[in-house]
Design goal:
It contains eight helices and no strands. It has helices at residues 2-209, 211-351, 354-358, 368-379, 385-391, 397-442, 450-456, 458-461. The longest helix is centred in the N-terminal third of the chain and has 208 residues, at 2-209. It is elongated.
């Protein structure tokens, strides 16, 4: 009893172990199968991706070659058309540039002529002004020379008269000195005679008083008198002669006194005349000084006018040079603008289509009556300032037509681009939905590049 009970649990345990081993073997086999399946699927997926990539690369290269060929042909045709239009446009622009260059040369010649004429006129004006100043200076110098000559003549006359009067005065002084010496001599003689009389009186008095004393001395006195009479005889004769000369000189002194009085009268008269002449000469000098000051003021005014004229001429020249430089800058800007316009026209011509090259403008959608009505309206004189301003730009009507056409095409292209962008976005959303649905249905692991895998899967079938 104990043996079968012990064998039964042993058999159960062996069966349980066997079942566990079988389960483990089945799990390992299933695991190996799953690994093989995943490896196979991964290899297959990688091969399909490589084949799809190579196929897509071949398709793209072939498509690019076809597009290059067609684009090459189109570009060659466009280059031929553009070369013809470019040559035509260049000829037109060369003609316009030549006309502009001629106009510029004519304008420069006119400017040079105007400048030369202005400079010639200014030179003539300066020459006339210098001649006028020369004539005024010559007249002033002539007047000054005449006044100097007259003044020198009067001065010489006054000096001659003064010399004559000084000689007369010297003669009179000499005569007065001689008269004075004669008077002194007469006084001396009178003194000597009075002394002799006094001596005689003394002798008589002494003779009365001192008869006794004089008797002894009489002989001596007589001898002395005789000697004195002998010695004074010549002096007496000389005294008589001097007395006659004194009378004669007194008469001459009276005559000279009368002459001196006349000379004094003449001197006073000449002094009055000299004073009058001096006053007149001072007045004339004052008038001459005033004329000189007036002439100097006129000269200063003329110099100021000349300097002002020179300054105005210099300012005119400076303004003219500034205007010339400004015109040159404006012309340079015009040339640059023309070059820019030519470049833009060339770029626009390159971007034109064949239809635009043949028919660059829209055909008019107006009827003949409407066109005639529009012409009548355009021919009428406008009232509003904007309409009058637009009247000056009637030559740009064709340009505005093409400009409006280009703007309309640009707006149409923008709208088409927006529509295509919206459509592309909608297609992307649909494609994402399709890819997400295909990924869920096929239970494939998530690929980092789902778009390429889905697009490239049908390629091996093809």
């Amino acid at each position: 009893m104990a043996g079968p009970r012990s064998t039964a649990p042993m058999a159960a345990e062996a069966e349980l172990l066997l079942m566990q081993k079988q389960a483990l073997a089945e799990e390992e086999a299933a695991k190996a199968k799953r690994e093989l399946l995943t490896r196979f699927l991964q290899e297959k997926l990688s091969r399909e991706e490589q084949s799809s990539m190579w196929g897509l690369h071949k398709v793209r290269t072939l498509w690019r070659l076809a597009q290059r060929k067609t684009k090459d042909q189109e570009l060659r045709q466009d280059i031929e058309i553009l070369s013809q239009t470019f040559t035509r446009v260049m000829d037109c622009k060369d003609g316009v540039i030549e006309t502009l260059v001629r106009d510029l040369e004519e304008a420069e010649e006119q400017q040079n002529r105007a400048l030369s004429s202005h400079l010639h006129l200014t030179d003539q004006l300066l020459h006339l002004q210098r001649c006028r100043l020369g004539y005024l200076e010559e007249g002033f110098n002539a007047q000054v020379g005449a006044l100097e000559a007259e003044f020198e003549a009067e001065r010489r006359a006054i000096l001659k008269q003064q010399e004559w009067e000084s000689c007369c005065l010297q003669d009179m002084a000499l005569a007065m000195e001689q008269d004075h010496t004669r008077n002194d001599h007469e006084a001396l003689l009178n003194f000597q005679s009075a002394r002799d009389d006094i001596k005689n009186k003394d002798q008589q008095y002494s003779r009365l008083q001192l008869v006794a004393r004089l008797e002894g001395l009489w002989e001596q006195i007589q001898s002395a008198r005789r000697s004195y009479a002998q010695s004074t005889e010549k002096k007496k004769v000389e005294f008589d002669e001097l007395k006659r000369k004194c009378e004669k000189s007194s008469r001459e002194i009276d005559v000279q006194a009368k002459k001196l009085q006349k000379l004094q009268d003449l001197v006073t008269a000449s002094k009055d005349q000299i004073a009058a002449h001096l006053q007149e000469s001072e007045k004339q000098c004052q008038h001459i000084q005033e004329d000189k000051d007036h002439a100097l003021q006129k000269l200063q005014k003329l110099r100021a006018q000349i300097s002002q004229a020179g300054a105005t001429a210099h300012t005119h020249l400076v303004t003219l040079t500034c205007q010339c430089s400004a015109t040159l800058k404006v012309l340079q800007q015009v040339v640059e603008k023309a070059q820019r316009i030519l470049r833009l026209a060339e770029m626009c011509r390159r971007l034109e289509t064949e239809e635009e090259k043949v028919l660059p403008f829209y055909p008019s959608s107006l009827s003949e009556s409407e066109q005639q009505k529009a012409l009548r309206v355009l021919e009428e004189t406008p009232i509003e300032p904007l309409a009058r301003a637009m009247k000056d730009y009637m030559g740009l009507e064709r340009f505005w037509q093409r400009f409006n056409k280009a703007k309309l095409e640009e707006k149409a292209l923008e709208q088409a681009r927006a529509a295509l962008a919206n459509r592309n976005q909608h297609l992307r959303k649909l494609l994402q939905q399709y890819l997400s649905g295909a990924a869920v249905s096929q239970k494939v692991p998530r690929n980092p590049h789902p778009i390429l895998t889905i697009k490239q899967k049908p390629h091996p079938k093809k």
